């Protein structure tokens, strides 16, 4: 039995519709049930703040504090983390500081939110992601980058540094400052960061594909084949030339075109994640609603398995309304697969009976109007 990462206690203060609650837990999964608007997704969102970023709703911090509360919000967790017992507190101070997320680990202010990834990894799947395959490519890119980030915490910094450099280049071009030395410097920086981003994405997809290949195909969930497109496609797949030189040259050649377009037309910010349903050999966007959902569930679970293999610890999984639209057999198969990951999963639904196949592998919590009943 491997060392299990799990939340032992979760406390929320002025978080969304919760004034003050405390939820004692054990290593089992957590099933949250209750009426619409009770606070199930809010509770999962609180757990998602134990990872870097803006949480599973991608919320503005100012929206998270409870309406009517005097100050900011706080999320506190006592957990058995990857390095053992740890206490994590995060939130905002309210007032002028409402836009800064504070983080304390074992009582000490953390230098960077990336420190969270030393203790736990958190992955989620929410109904808001249902349109992932048919929606805008920006959503798929964000999804992809989150997959990379949970394996490689440096990916976030690379992506934000790339964005900053690109904004700098766009500004120079917009102002008509075609100074080759200055532009060339910014473009070299973009090339180094952009190629690193593309390679990190490619590497993660390679690992995920190898894992899906090795999986049992009789599984209740279809498997996906994954590819990237839109940026140095052939070159990244078989790097025979210096990719950074290649991208820097593309940028240098494209200066007048990009100035006219008002943006940088080539780069990792334009690539897309292509997903196919393997067994049907069909693009995901042409699959049925149910097939797309099953593909997404399969993808997230395969990724969770990859994170577990790479870090030695299963991630905390937040699965919002996961059991909806699944027949009983698929539901039971899903619970078995979640359980086999060896981590703690939080699941929500309006109906407790949907989760009966979990039996005593889960702790059942009823949520009603910002209160918890364990
Ligand atoms: N900052 C806030 N302050 C107070 N209440 C809030 C805040 N943000 C959201 N809420 C409220 O929290 C309530 C619970 O939302 P949540 O999304 O957690 O419900 P849910 O239990 O997941 O419901 P559903 O089954 O419909 O998904 C909503 O009524 C929402 O209006
Ligand atoms: Mg909800």
Features:
374 residues, alpha/beta, Rossmann fold, Glutathione S-transferase Yfyf (Class Pi), Chain A, domain 2, 2 domains, six-stranded antiparallel β-sheet, six-stranded mixed β-sheet, 10 helices, 15 strands, binds adenosine-5'-triphosphate, binds magnesium ion, DNA damage, ATP-binding, DNA replication, SOS response, DNA-binding
Give the total of domains: 2
Low-confidence parts lasting 5 or more residues at pLDDT below 50?
Answer: none
Q: What's the level 1 CATH class of the largest domain?
A: Mainly Alpha
Percentage of residues in DSSP E strands: 15-25%
Specify the CATH homologous superfamily of the largest domain: RecF/RecN/SMC, N-terminal domain
What are the distinct ligands in this entry? adenosine-5'-triphosphate, magnesium ion
Instruction: Report the structural category.
Output: alpha/beta
CATH level-two architecture of the largest domain: Up-down Bundle
- Output the radius of gyration: 22 Å
Number of strands: 15
Q: What separation lies between the terminal Cα atoms? A: 27 Å
Shape: globular
| Helical content band | 25-40%
Strand arrangement, major sheet: 2-1-4-5-6-7
Q: What is the ordering of alpha helices and beta strands?
A: EEEHHEEEEEHHHEHHHEEHEHEEE
CATH topology of the largest domain: Glutathione S-transferase Yfyf (Class Pi), Chain A, domain 2
Mean pLDDT: 93
Main β sheet profile: 6 strands, antiparallel
What is the tally of helical segments?
Answer: 10
